[in-house]
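FAD-binding oxidoreductase, pasting as requested.
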Amino acid sequence: MTEFLENLVRGIPGLKITTDPDPIAQACTDWRKRYATTALAVVEPQTTAQVEALVKRCGEHGVAVCTQGGNTGLVGGAVPVADGEHATRPHVLLKTHRLREVLTLDEANLTLTASAGYTLHEIQEFAAAHGLLFPLSLASEGTCTLGGNLASNAGGVAVLRYGNTRELCLGLEYVNAHGERCGDLRGLRKNNTGYDLRHLLIGSEGTLGVITTACIKLYPAPNSRCVAWLHVRDIDAAVQTLNHIQQKAFHELTSFEWMNATAIDLVQKHFPAKAPVGPAGCDHVLVEFSSLGSEAALHDHVAGVLADLMNGNPAVMNITLTKNAREAEQLWALRENISEAQAKEGLNVKHDVACPVSRLPEFHHQALAAIEEAGLSVQPILFGHLGDGNLHFNLSAPSHLDAKVFLEQHQEALNDIVHSAILACGGTVSAEHGIGQLKRGLLRDITAAPTYRAFVAIKAALDPQNLFNPGKLLAN
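Structure tokens follow.
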């Protein structure tokens, strides 16, 4: 492979190439440190033309391309595959953070066009400087990139109101397996001229091409914001609360997050953030509202909706309504630090599941009952975007057991129980984290045979050499 790397150096001026073992090892270790792999080199293009040239040379030499944005994924999709036949195949890891050729805004069309290497936070800030909003919001927004958001079809806390990344993208440009620039950045909201390849690339986890640029939707920035923290009896009460609020304040409702008592107790153990005082052992709900109207009008409207909610409703036990942005951020810190608190606490079995909102309580109760019936003792750390049906159903070892040993002994059984329960409720085993290399076998097992054959056929048609991210998403 020395000849291949020399070819890159000579043939692609300006391409940054790193072959030192330490930076390669760092780049090839995923965020959860579940996969530690390697590559021939880390390559960092600055332009789409460099990506085109790189992909052509990789195709000529049979070198696979693993594309990585901020490396914040949770399923091993942004590092070379760790096992199977593709693990021995030579890879380059293509980091996109230097792809920053384009950052423009069309105010009249409410669109922003940006290169894949910009972080989500940078895009949010650029839109905000023009009085506009790009509503995608994730805990990792300071690190994750636009290209990664598109490749993984990222969700986040505002899907309830604005949709996930797929719904926010009007067009994208990508480099295909032949090293050709493809796509459409015109920012059209109506365009019925053939297959819309954009939707194949979004959520494809880097297996069909390298996304280099995208045209995304913007919205008028809200003039007011209000956040409420509710103590509720259980997840059933949380769903009922969501239904009530949607009936009364549908257009103002931005986020609706549910957390069980264990999740919030864990955050307060490891971080200084404190939740509003409420009954012991109750569940928590964080609700955000926003409006183009005044702060006072929004606050009064929300206060009325929540007062009506509590009237004669014993399942809602306490409501705290923020008065300013500082208080709102303090409440959001409780929700956003759950994952970090879990990491501090130790290993756990993670599940990113979703089903119709109406069936979330059914799934919750069935899964926990099945775990108990199996004789497994766990600490459920449960939270998520209840407003769009997505829960992070994470299970930790009891405090008196070694977490690593617990996972080795019981992870497979717990996965089977949770996945069976969510599928029985008309749900999915991957709501927003994707498939990567973690769930590729599971995807094959739960997908109808004709559908899975279509997946394989699409991959073969668009990437006949299996150049892009081999060993990810598909099991074969």
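Note for the archive: The mean pLDDT is 96.
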